[in-house]
Amino acid sequence: MRERLNVANIAMGFALFVWGGLYLLGSSLASEAANRRVPGLPNAGQLAYYLGFPTKMTMLLLIVTIICASGKRWAGFQLTAAIIALLAFFPYIIFYTGGI
Known about the structure:
Blueprint: H1 2-35, H2 44-69, H3 75-96
Helix pairs in contact: 1-2, 1-3, 2-3
C-alpha cells in the first residue's frame, strides 16, 4: 500500500509541476503581450486558454491532493486524477503552440 501511495504522490507532484508551469508560462506570455500595447492582445480567448485552463487544472489537482491526504488515503483516486491530468496535457499543448 505504501509503495502505491508513493507512486501516486510522485505522479500527482509531476502533474502539478506541469500544469503549474503552464500557468506561469501563460501568465508570462499574457503580460508580455499586454506590455507591447497591441490593440486586442491578449484577448479574452487567449486569457482563458493560457491562464484559465491551467489554473483550473492546477486547482483541481490540489483539491484532489487535499481530499486524498485528509482522512482515508485513496492512492488509486489520486493516481487516476494525475494520469488523466497528464494525458490532458498533450492535446492542450498541441493548440498551445499553434499546432506546430
